[in-house]
Amino acid sequence: MMSEMYSYKYPHPAVTTDCVIFGFDGSTINILLVERGIEPYRGSWALPGGFLKMDETVEEGALRELREETGVSKVFLEQFHVFSDVKRDPRERVLTVAFLALVRKSDYHVIAGDDAANAQWFEWDELPPLAFDHSDIIKLAKKSLQQKLRIQPIAFKLLNNVFRMSELQRIYEIIHETTYDRRNFARKMVASGFVNEEAADNAMSFSAAEKPTRGRAATLFSFDEEKFEKTLSSQEWRKFPFDF
Fold first, then answer.
1. Torsions phi, psi of 121, nearest 5?
2. What is the Cα–Cα distance from 62 to 19, expressed in whole angstroms?
3. pLDDT value at position 241?
4. Phi and psi at residue 84, to the nearest 5°
5. Sorting pLDDT into bands at 50, 70 and 90, what band is 110?
6. Among candidates 140, 134, 141, which has minimal Cα distance to 102?
7. How far is CA 146 from the centre of its chain?
8. N or C: which end of the chain has fewer CB within 10 A?
């Protein structure tokens, strides 16, 4: 075995990771951004991310940057594209591996750290001007999320274990930019086998807008986490009706 590493003479581009983090707050989908604390684009908003270390995979690098810049960890994370425009970074030749992540916003206390001056959630369609090519990255992340949502039950990663059917429908409507018939949507979701009806918990706290009216108990649902994880790693999800 070779005891030393090869050192090639051709130019080596730098590699970064960037994460598009989607969070659902019960009514809208938000995207987590950080305010850059260093040049270039100091003071501008950008996606959480940074340069890859020599001893880590791109997945490890993405998770590390999320922890360091936002305090977010243990998320559903999936690579969706590599951006390689030769002029995308003014510092040097930089490729970035882009990931999308799904979290429920209320689960995380976002704390800016490392080289990020601030971290903040922005509504899905109300984003500020962004550094680098991050607007393009987010645009493609939204398209990727739309495609995945048609064939995989990943929307549940944006919800608590117990949720209202109206919350789930709202996620689908925002991402697909359309509206669905309430009864038909609920019927198809229950038919998928992932969604189970739960008994209303009178002790559960609701906001004023969520409280049932006229004494009617709210219908709550839950999803089968074990079945969810199993189907993501197999072809079984192809049997379920997630394309409305």
1. -85, 140
2. 7
3. 53
4. -135, 20
5. low
6. 141
7. 12
8. N
The 3-state DSSP class for residue 31 equals: strand
Query: Tell me, what amino acid is at 8?
Result: Y
pLDDT in tens, 183-208: 999 988 888 778 888 865 533 544 43
DSSP line for 72-130: --S-EEEEEEEE--TTS-SSS-EEEEEEEEEEEGGG------TTEEEEEEEETT-PPPB
Task: For the chain, list the strands marked E by DSSP.
Answer: 14-24, 29-36, 45-46, 49-51, 76-83, 94-104, 116-123, 162-163, 195-198, 220-223
pTM: 0.83
In the block, residue with structure tokens 């550094």 = 131
What is the sign, positive or negative, of the torsion defined by CA atoms of 95, 97, 103, 108?
Answer: negative
Cβ atoms of residues 77 and 19 within 8 Å: yes
Task: With cut-offs at 50, 70 and 90, classify the pLDDT of residue 154.
Answer: confident
Q: Are 84 and 125 in contact (CB under 8 A)?
A: no
What is residue 221's three-state secondary structure? strand
Residue 53 has pLDDT above 80, yes or no: yes
What distance in Å separates the CA atoms of residue 174 and residue 182, rounded to the nearest whole number? 15
pLDDT tens-place string over residues 1-30: 444 666 778 888 999 999 999 999 888 999
